UniProtKB/TrEMBL annotation:
One of its GO terms (molecular function) is oxidoreductase activity. This is DHR13 reductase. Keywords: Oxidoreductase. The lineage of its organism: Eukaryota, Metazoa, Chordata, Craniata, Vertebrata. Belongs to the short-chain dehydrogenases/reductases (SDR) family. Transmembrane segments: none annotated. It comes from the Eukaryota.
Amino acid sequence: QETGNPEVRFMQLDLASLRSVRAFASAFLRQEPHLHLLINNAGVSAGGMTEDGFSLSFQVNHLGHFLLTQLLLERLQSCAPSRVVIVASRAHCAGRLHPDTLGRPPPGPLSAFQDYCDSKLANMLHARELATRLQGTQVTCYAVHPGFVNTELFRHTPLWLKPFFLPLVWLFFREAAEGAQTSLHCATQEGLECFSGRYFADCRLQEPWPLARDDRLARAVWEASERLVGLVGAGESPSP
């Protein structure tokens, strides 16, 4: 209603529920014949567990997006050229991923923060491995750091921490429109196809943290993610 554009449609999707992700993808594929751009933008920084048994931040930020992308991938390929933009974060530099414990809350007093950083490293590796698997398909993907943006991402910050945290948000964080610029750049800028799988910040190509460039880790996280979201069984071979 605010845009005045009758072509804008709202469809319900809860990334904290793999059942909801599957229902959304099924409804979308029935109703929409075209898909040229997928921006995996949702994020949360919070403790707690999902109905699927995963830590909340890791499922919303990575596993839900991973499943959604896989379920829509055939449509993206049939509508190529098309793009996938994965909103990661510079916080990926503090990520520590172990494929055999993926989706479990990290130990320690800063578990929620570490879980967020881990999910952002997973976002980076998702983009890298997705680009590898999509070579020659005219579907490209990009990981982006939007900057530190004043949205509701940190609405679950503990009450005792908010008096210290909120002044920093007001002083140093970007507004949402500014934070969207790098995502829009990767979604619309011509000539980025040769940078598929790479990382952008401030609308420029950036070099990520070394772990985010680890191809072996990227493949291991991909295969673990496939198993966790039910795309392959425990004894099945992962996708090529």
